[in-house]
Amino acid sequence: MSKLSTKTTTYKLHAPNYVSSSSDNNNETIEKYMIPSPTLPATAKSPSPSRNNNKGIKQRKSIKFRSDDDNNKFPTRLREKLSRIIELMTYFRLILALTLYSLILVDVIYIHKKKEKPFWIEIFIQTINAGFIFLTIVGHPKRIRNLPRAIRICWAVRRGEIQTILSYSSTFTEIQKTQINVARDYKWYVYDTLDSSLNCTPIKLLSILLIWNIGTLAQYGISGILWFIPQAKRPEIPYITLTIITSISELLPIPAVVIQSKRARMAHNYEIRYTFRYSIQDSC
């Protein structure tokens, strides 16, 4: 009997006795030794099938919207890549121009001394001229179509028809459309900044485009001399004159365009540009 009572006493020491607890500490003792139930609490609600369906629909919609955004970003990325390629072609065109003018100078020296130059120099001149005239033909349509636009903008400024942020009229929409079209072709052309010192003035725009078009026509003349007149019979004075005109027209606008490009970048970075949000922009 003594052994049995000892075992019983040991069992009572290790196991909690909920029945013998006092009424005051009953709740505290139950909470202390309570084992969490694996079942859901009474306040929690099991997810209904309708909510799962709605969640699936929302996920599908978000995936659809994300794919639409990716589709909209594709033309923008393509446009950025094309503009980057055009910018690289512009630098390459400048390198070709400087090389061509140097070779033409060598050709003029041989013509003046009435000596026959090495054959490889003639091949090199014809090759560089072919590449340069190709890039000139590619870029000439943009230059020639923006020249009348620049004249129209200058004429509008002279007549006081350029709208500002404080004054807008529907009669000025044609001028606004012209400015938007020029800005699309030349990213350095900004005309609607709050800081007027960053704007490209109409006179500057007209001067740059006029010089470029004159240089393009002179380049066509140089190509005609190189292609259709033999080396010994090339006219020296027209040859030199066209070369000087072309070199000036290619090199002179570079500082103005570089400075204006930096100003346009500042205008875009600091977000001080404003845009007239009218239907005319959608119709352009």
From TrEMBL:
Entry keyword Transmembrane: yes
Region Disordered, annotated ranges: 37-69
Regions crossing the membrane: 91-112, 118-139, 205-227, 239-259
InterPro entries xref list: DUF2985 (IPR021369)
Domain of life (superkingdom): Eukaryota
Protein keywords: Membrane, Transmembrane, Transmembrane helix
Polar residues bias spans: 45-56
Protein's recorded name: 17900_t:CDS:1
Species name: Funneliformis caledonium
Lineage, opening ranks: Eukaryota, Fungi, Fungi incertae sedis, Mucoromycota, Glomeromycotina
